[in-house]
Design goal:
The structure is a single chain. The chain contains 11 helices and 15 strands. It is α/β, with parallel strands linked by helices and about 350 residues long. The chain has 2 domains: about 1-145 and about 290-340, Alpha-Beta Complex (Quinone Oxidoreductase, Chain A, domain 1); about 150-285, NAD(P)-binding Rossmann-like Domain (Rossmann fold). Strands 3, 4, 5, 6, 7, 14 and 15 form a 7-stranded mixed beta sheet that branches. Helix 5 links the parallel strand 8 and strand 9 (about 190-195). The longest helix is centred in the middle third of the chain and has 12 residues, at about 145-160. The radius of gyration is 19 Å and the shape is globular. It starts with a strand and ends with a strand.
Length: about 350
């Protein structure tokens, strides 16, 4: 099969013919219909993700059609499914408690095992998968496995956002834009913060009531002025000190900060304003992925038309275009995300 393989950090992925995956006994092999290119892939590509090594086939935001099923699999050939990027074992105490995204036995295609920058991908623990609704295109569905699910769980499973609350989203890349769209659907009043005016305009068109360019003065002070005391919830969607501290400092007393952006490599440890947390009695939540049992709440929101995630998709690309998308994350990116839909070009 054709795959884009990481052979050296910061170099173009190499398009290679590699063996097709072996079907797991408790899982399936998917023909990949679509796969997003995510900033987390970029962290691996530049060598800052601790688990991604040369030889890795990336790609963790995928949906596909089952072409082979193992003897203990729940799905069968022909089923179209969407996958969370964290595949949980289902039997450990974390899984039994409903926190599958913290499973210590998790499997991670795209980071540790071969991912979906390829024609086919093996998916163990297929009880994590959800059927792809007929009304949802594979292109849009590909973003659900990471960006959209992570944003949904951050807003509802961690911060418990309520209608009419102010939600400040720091960074409007894939997760940030997803947070803007979903927070608006929940009835929140959304502030989008970025350094790219084009992305702010895009966010304003899709749910942001207020947009702020972080290069134009003290963001936290402006948010406190606009909201009459500070945001109730702040979503940090980039994982760098500047946005983490702006997120903490923009909150009102008893506000909730959710760390969604991935701090890894040189940002794994950073200096943050602990005084803001202490003085404001703030709650600080970490979040990564979403428990698979929460898929129905998200899919029903999309299926019933309460939310449209299609504005998240900026462009469809061929597999050979993956390297260019990864390089683009080296600087500020344009609005929306790229999804691989052609695995032959």
């Amino acid at each position: 099969m054709r795959a884009a393989v990481l052979r050296a950090y910061n170099e173009d992925l190499v398009l290679e013919d590699v063996p097709e995956p072996v079907c797991p006994e408790d899982g399936v092999v998917l023909k990949v219909l679509a796969c997003g290119v995510c900033r987390s892939d970029w962290h691996g590509w530049v060598g800052e993700h601790p688990r991604v090594k040369p030889g890795q086939i990336g790609g963790h935001e995928y949906c596909g059609e089952v072409i082979e099923a193992g003897p203990r699999a729940a799905f069968k050939p022909g089923d179209r499914v969407v996958a969370p990027f964290i595949l949980a074992c289902g039997s450990c105490p974390s899984c039994q408690a409903g926190a599958q995204n913290t499973c210590p036995n998790q499997r991670l295609p795209g980071f540790v095992e071969p991912g979906a920058f390829a024609e086919y991908v093996a998916v163990p623990f297929d009880h994590n998968l959800s059927r792809l609704p007929d009304s949802l295109s594979p292109t849009v569905a590909a973003g659900l496995g990471c960006r959209v699910t992570t944003a949904w769980h951050a807003l509802t499973g961690r911060a418990a956002v309520q209608g009419a609350e102010w939600v400040a989203v720091h960074g409007t890349g894939g997760i940030g834009l997803s947070s803007v769209i979903l927070a608006n659907a929940l009835g929140a009043r959304v502030i989008a913060v970025d350094v790219v005016d084009e992305k702010l305009t895009h966010a304003a068109q899709h749910g942001a009531e207020v947009t702020l360019n972080a290069r134009e003065g003290d963001v936290a002070a402006r948010i406190k002025q606009i909201t009459g005391g500070g945001a109730h919830v702040a979503i940090e969607a980039l994982g760098i000190p500047e946005t983490v501290n702006a997120s903490l400092e923009c909150l009102r007393p008893l506000g909730r900060h959710v760390q969604v952006g991935l701090p890894t490599g040189h940002t794994a440890r950073m200096e943050i304003n602990m005084s803001a947390i202490y003085q404001g009695n703030l709650a600080v939540y970490g979040t990564r992925g979403m428990p698979s049992w929460r898929y129905p709440s998200l899919l029903s929101l999309i299926e019933t038309g309460r939310v449209d995630m299609s504005p998240l998709i900026a462009r469809e690309i061929g597999l050979s275009g993956t390297s260019a998308e990864l390089r683009a994350f080296n600087g500020p990116t344009p609005p929306g995300v790229a999804v691989i839909t052609d695995f032959q070009s």
